[in-house]
């Protein structure tokens, strides 16, 4: 009992002591809690500062929700950019290649990225999800024939257009989606240049999506491309996009309001210190280049916002004031343009002069053509060894020109002084790797240099057959001296401004000349000095089929075609029509072909079945479009019945080709 009483007394004494000293105990506990709060606050602030300086909150966890001693501690870290989705619509593979290159650059920023073909994406089910995903959507889209989207992007564009104009979707359907657009086009097609990219940009804007930067346009026309090629245009845009993306990852808010004109963003709000420092680091030249490269949406969008915003409601009574405001703004713009007209003229003249100094062959084009076996000369010419040349070196048969006209294939040099063409034919042997244009705007090489290097390159290619099994020694020696030049390698040789001097040089070297033109340059045909034989390609006999097959750049292509045939009839030399038959495309137009023959009055008509050159994303031709030789023969027989002044003269079955000659000519 005494022991239990002692224990109780001791315990009671402790309690009394604690009670008496309770103030000191409370103070110690409060001090400890204060120290813990200060430590937690300092640690959190330091961590946030470090993440901000590193620049990419997307790589860290978005929200930390952990239990500490039974209490929930919420530390929200806002994710400004969750990832990047790159959508591409490509026909020849350029947009796809750009998309993959951009994806690699985005990955280097430690951001998730997804590359998506528009043909594999259902916008009806998925696009609205991007309004809350915090992703950046990038659209790399090419413009195809007649301003239409590529096959893979056709459905996406159709859906987007319908959504933008369907009141059931609502004008805020894509509010929250952030996007950027880079269009791929060719400014030679003036009426349809980058139509698809512009439309996608406008339709997204109409659905209240937000541009993170103004639209950019790449140009395949090296003479007009801001940076010399579409690849260089894309590189310039990519650098600006990556810079903008990094700014977004840091949480900088500088949205494009759509009021931008000529690449100068007028969006409200101050830029953060990081953005200002970054932009100060870039040179004035780069800024100027970027501003001139990037095109925004149409001026109608800016006018709409100035009049009251994207989604504002306009009272009918205020409509007159708004129209007056828009007319006044238009007059002010016209006056301003008139005041600076002289300086703009000088500037444009300077730019044109600069453009003329550009080379036709870009580095990417040079690489592609070299892989195809071309020996490139200077900045716009080329030469290549024909397979019939190799065949005749071995003592085998020659091409149809040997059968029809006696041209020895092993002594024939296939060349061109202009790789550029004014058509993009569906059966192009070169799969449209060569440039296109409607006039000469490139740096020009002299004809003497072109001919000298063409002969040297041709001889070097012949030398490679020395000692090859089967090559005839006598034919090898003969082949070292070219006696004929087929100006039909690729492109439009008649576009070359010094074509007359070049042909004259050929003849001075005792080299005969066969020149082929695509019937789009009637004045040049009239001004052309006599060649040994002048060809005009007649790929179709009606306006509709010619547009579908040749895909010409000129808007007045049909009138140019007819004028070229009339010009051919005026030439006092041997002339030839060259018909290329594409099954299911142009083989049912016999009467129309007969009418064209009476217009141009050629001495010869070569009718040849199309040659299938393999699968190409630039064309949907297949082996089913190649006519059998029997079908070509039947076509020629039926055509000959419609043109009584002509008769079938010769046949070369291996080339799937027949010759029709005027009866005044006896072979």
UniProtKB/TrEMBL annotation:
Q: Which InterPro entries match?
A: Aldolase_TIM, Flavdoxin-like, Flavodoxin/NO_synth, Flavoprotein-like_sf, rSAM, rSAM_sf, tRNA_wybutosine-synth, tRNA_wybutosine-synthase
Gene Ontology molecular function: 4 iron, 4 sulfur cluster binding; FMN binding; metal ion binding; tRNA-4-demethylwyosine synthase activity
Question: Which ranges carry the Radical SAM core domain?
Answer: 405-649
Q: Which domain of life is it from?
A: Eukaryota
Pathway assignment? tRNA modification; wybutosine-tRNA(Phe) biosynthesis
Q: Where in this protein does the record put region Disordered?
A: 253-358
Q: Where is the composition biased (Basic and acidic residues)?
A: 271-283, 348-358
Q: Which UniProt keywords apply?
A: 4Fe-4S, Iron, Iron-sulfur, Lyase, Membrane, Metal-binding, Nucleotide-binding, S-adenosyl-L-methionine, Transmembrane, Transmembrane helix, tRNA processing
In terms of Pfam families, this protein maps to: Flavodoxin_1, Radical_SAM, Wyosine_form
Give the top-level enzyme category. lyase
Using the record's annotation, list all stretches that form the Flavodoxin-like domain. 84-242
Biased region (Acidic residues) positions are 286-306
Cofactor(s) for this protein?
A: [4Fe-4S] cluster
Q: Which reaction does it catalyse?
A: N(1)-methylguanosine(37) in tRNA(Phe) + pyruvate + S-adenosyl-L-methionine = 4-demethylwyosine(37) in tRNA(Phe) + 5'-deoxyadenosine + L-methionine + CO2 + H2O
Q: Which GO terms describe its biological process?
A: wybutosine biosynthetic process
Query: For this protein, what is the EC number?
Result: 4.1.3.44
> Could you list the residue ranges that cross the membrane?
23-42
State the function annotated in the UniProt record: Probable component of the wybutosine biosynthesis pathway. Wybutosine is a hyper modified guanosine with a tricyclic base found at the 3'-position adjacent to the anticodon of eukaryotic phenylalanine tRNA. Catalyzes the condensation of N-methylguanine with 2 carbon atoms from pyruvate to form the tricyclic 4-demethylwyosine, an intermediate in wybutosine biosynthesis.
Q: Which family does it belong to?
A: Belongs to the TYW1 family.
Q: This protein is called what?
A: S-adenosyl-L-methionine-dependent tRNA 4-demethylwyosine synthase TYW1
């Amino acid at each position: 009992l005494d022991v239990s009483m002692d224990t109780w007394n001791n315990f009671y004494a402790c309690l009394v002591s604690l009670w008496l000293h309770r103030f000191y105990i409370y103070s110690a506990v409060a001090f400890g809690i204060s120290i813990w709060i200060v430590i937690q606050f300092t640690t959190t602030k330091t961590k946030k500062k470090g993440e901000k300086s590193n620049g990419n909150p997307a790589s860290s966890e978005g929200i930390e929700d952990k239990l500490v001693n039974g209490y929930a501690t919420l530390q929200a870290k806002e994710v400004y950019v969750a990832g990047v989705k790159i959508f591409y619509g490509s026909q020849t593979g350029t947009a796809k290649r750009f998309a993959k290159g951009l994806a690699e650059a985005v990955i280097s920023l430690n951001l998730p990225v997804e590359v998506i073909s528009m043909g594999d994406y259902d916008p009806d089910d998925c696009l609205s999800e991007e309004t809350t995903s915090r992703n950046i959507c990038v659209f790399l889209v090419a413009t195809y024939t007649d301003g239409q989207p590529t096959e893979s992007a056709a459905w996406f564009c159709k859906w987007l257009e319908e959504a933008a104009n369907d009141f059931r979707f609502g004008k805020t359907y894509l509010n929250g989606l952030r996007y950027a657009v880079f269009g791929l086009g060719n400014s030679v097609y003036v009426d349809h240049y980058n139509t698809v990219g512009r439309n996608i940009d406008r339709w997204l804007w109409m659905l209240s999506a937000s541009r993170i930067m103004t639209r950019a346009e790449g140009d395949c026309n090296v003479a007009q491309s801001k940076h010399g090629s579409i690849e260089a245009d894309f590189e310039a845009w990519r650098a600006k996009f990556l810079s903008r993306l990094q700014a977004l990852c840091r949480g900088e808010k500088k949205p494009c309001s759509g009021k931008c004109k000529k690449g100068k963003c007028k969006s409200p709000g101050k830029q953060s210190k990081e953005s200002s420092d970054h932009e100060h680091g870039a040179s004035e030249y780069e800024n100027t280049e970027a501003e001139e490269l990037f095109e925004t949406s149409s001026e109608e969008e800016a006018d709409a916002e100035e009049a009251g915003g994207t989604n504002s409601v306009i009272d009918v009574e205020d409509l007159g004031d708004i129209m007056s405001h828009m007319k006044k703004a238009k007059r002010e713009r016209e006056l301003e343009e008139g005041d600076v007209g002289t300086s703009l003229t000088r500037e444009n003249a300077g730019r044109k002069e600069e453009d003329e100094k550009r080379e036709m062959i870009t580095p990417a084009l040079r690489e592609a053509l070299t892989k195809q076996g071309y020996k490139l000369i200077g900045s716009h010419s080329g030469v290549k060894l024909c397979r019939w040349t190799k065949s005749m070196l071995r003592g085998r048969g020659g091409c149809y020109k040997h059968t029809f006209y006696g041209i020895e294939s092993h002594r024939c040099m296939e060349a061109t002084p202009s790789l550029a063409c004014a058509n993009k034919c569906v059966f192009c042997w070169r799969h449209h790797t060569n440039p296109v244009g409607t006039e000469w705007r490139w740096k020009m090489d002299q004809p003497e240099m072109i001919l000298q290097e063409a002969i040297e390159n041709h001889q070097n290619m012949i030398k490679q057959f020395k000692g090859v099994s089967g090559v005839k020694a006598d034919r090898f020696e003969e082949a070292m001296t070219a006696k004929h030049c087929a100006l039909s390698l690729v492109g439009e040789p008649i576009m070359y401004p010094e074509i007359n001097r070049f042909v004259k040089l050929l003849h001075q070297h005792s080299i005969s000349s066969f020149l082929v033109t695509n019937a789009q340059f009637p004045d040049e045909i009239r001004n052309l000095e006599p060649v040994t034989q002048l060809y005009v390609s007649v790929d179709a006999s009606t306006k509709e089929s010619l547009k579908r097959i040749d895909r010409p750049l000129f808007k007045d292509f049909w009138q140019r075609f007819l004028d070229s045939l009339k010009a051919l009839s005026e030439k006092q030399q041997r002339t030839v029509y060259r018909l290329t038959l594409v099954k299911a495309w142009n083989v049912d137009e016999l009467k129309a072909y007969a009418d064209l023959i009476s217009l141009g009055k050629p001495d010869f008509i070569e009718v040849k079945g199309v040659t299938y050159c393999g699968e190409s994303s630039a064309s949907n031709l297949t082996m089913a479009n190649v006519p059998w030789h029997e079908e070509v023969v039947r076509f020629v027989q039926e055509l000959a019945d419609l043109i009584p002044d002509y008769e079938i003269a010769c046949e070369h079955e291996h080339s799937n080709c027949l010759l029709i000659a005027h009866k005044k000519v006896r072979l």
